Amino acid sequence: MSVTDSVYDYRYENGRRYHAYSEGKYPVPNDEIEKDRLDLQHHAFRLTLDGALYRAPIGKDIHHVLDVGTGTGIWAIVFQEHPSAEVIGTDLSPIQPTDVPPNCSFLIDDFDNDWVFRQQFDFIHTRAMVAAMKNWNRFLQQAYDNLKPGGYLEVQDFAFPPLCTDPSVTDENSPLLRWSTLFLEAASRIGIDGSSPLKIGPILRETGFENVECKIYKWPVGRWAKGDKMKLLGKFAYEDLQDWLPSSCLGLFTRVLKWSRDEVEVFLSTVRRELKEEKHRHFYARA
Q: Please, what are the domains in the chain?
């Protein structure tokens, strides 16, 4: 089905472009800079899993798959590795390509609304939703209700704050950790808990999911880690963070903390300087 023209009436703010459907709900841009970042991040997630798209023990003959918060649609498109699967990707923004495999389709939808699908799913996947998720309980319940018996849900996400290998580094002497603290503060004011991915294990069990497995991966920010894989992952994480800094806070800091765009840009310059110059400070993200 074709989307209505109104979803393309994007909002422009501080030199960035934001979604129109459910306007203002997701404080992160949907422009070309952000699309490139999401595609780069996709490769970082695959590298983390040694090239795999997921960890769930799903079969090769899987049929119905849902990708919530599909972004550019890259995960859903690559899932054509399973030719038997029909994949639906949902997102607030129509930023997915139109030339896609015949078994892949996209739907402009708000996952906070009631889910109305014609079928239940064998596999539901979601990734990097920490800056969008206000109610994990409702989301996980809807996922549970829309899974076939024996189906799988996989949640891949980040948890704030980032950590440093040097315990003496705090948000008082580190611009990066100060950014994280400010992000958490601003996000909490609009109902988002940036540390929530670390807490969803018990919610999954309370919802009714069985055989729940939780695993934390570390992404080094920069090429300081040992081993070819971790050095490459660190390069991806560094580039991802460089673009995520303005994406994460231009909207939040100006709307919620009432900073000016200039104040945000000056502050982010100190964060970038730290990441570039403070080589003895080894930061890493948790995914």
A: 5-286 (3.40.50.150)
